[in-house]
Amino acid sequence: MEKTTVLITGCSSGIGLGLAVRLAADTARRFKVYATMRDLAKGERLLERLGGCCPDTLEVLQLDVTDPCSLAAAAQRVQGQRLDVLVCNAGVGLMGPLETCSDQAMKTIFDVNLFGAIRTIQAFLPAMKRRRAGRIIVSSSIGGLQGLPFNSVYCASKFAVEGLCESLAIVLRPFNIHLTLVECGPVNTSFLANLQRPDPEGSELQGLDAETRGLYHRYLRHCQSLFHDAAQEVEEVLQVFVEAIGTPCPPLRCVTTQLFAPLSRLRLASPDGSAYVRAMHDFVFGRSEAGGDQP
């Protein structure tokens, strides 16, 4: 049986690493995986998880989604192969009060999360269109569906990804190319530890008003509690990706957790947004922190 060819970005850790291992180690050997990452030195972890090289099912490639030359080289490497599935998983985070976010940090977030996904899709979409077959899976976030406090720029990048993919999915219907957004909530990976954020005791916050500093400290405690009590394990999230790869007609959106479902429903039920803003504020900071506009 001919293998399903899958290219995944962002495979040095977390979901990308786990998905590459899951598919390459498939006992029925149904997949040929191109696991890509910006720094090939981090590929050792992937090979260790697989117990060594798997030339029939895995090839590790260098790919930096912010570098058009790197993307072109990766596309050239798989040229001639039938790429069945493209998984755009590379992403970075940025947390903190908006006043502390530098221009460079904000540009990096959009360069990786939005423009990186666009460049990657642009590199591999023409071949899928010519074959009139394929599927594109994009790692998104609950933060692409609803605003999260102290994640303004990250949410903005993921909201943009959601709009990009929904618009593109409409055009791809006649080409038999399915596009799916996998919207993750808290997951036990290194993402939270690796994201860029100001030290709560550092100099970046010294110029802020005391009330915002207090809210940020409370938000960090909320995050610690949320990840401790409700974060999903990577394997649980991987199952959503695997189903999106194997389902004949995958949906546009797959949410990996129902943790935020009540807030999501409230956001839809109250189109002017005020009920959601109040509810999210209370969920994170508690009712005692409510502002003067609360009923």
Q: Explain this structure to me?
A:
The protein has 295 residues and is of the alpha/beta class. Helix 6 links the parallel strand 5 and strand 6. Strands 3-2-1-4-5-6-7 form a seven-stranded parallel sheet, sandwiched between helices. It is 46% helix and 14% strand. The chain is built from eleven helices and seven strands. The C terminus is likely disordered. Helix 10 runs antiparallel to helix 11. The radius of gyration is 20 Å and the shape is globular.
Strand line-up across the major sheet = 3-2-1-4-5-6-7
Structural class: alpha/beta
Strand content: 5-15%
> What's the helix count?
11
User: Secondary-structure element sequence?
Assistant: EHEHEHEHHEHEHHHEHH
Q: If you compute it from the alpha carbons, what radius of gyration comes out, rounded to the nearest whole angstrom?
A: 20 Å
**Low-confidence parts, pLDDT < 50 over ≥5 residues?**
289-295
Give the overall shape: globular
Strands, count? 7
Roughly how many Å apart are the termini? 63 Å
Average of the residue pLDDT scores? 92
User: How many strands, which pairing sense, and closed or not: the largest β-sheet?
Assistant: 7 strands, parallel
- Which range best describes the helical content: under 10%, 10-25%, 25-40%, 40-55%, 55-70% or over 70%? 40-55%
Outline:
With 295 residues, the protein is α/β, with parallel strands linked by helices. The protein contains 11 helices and 7 strands.
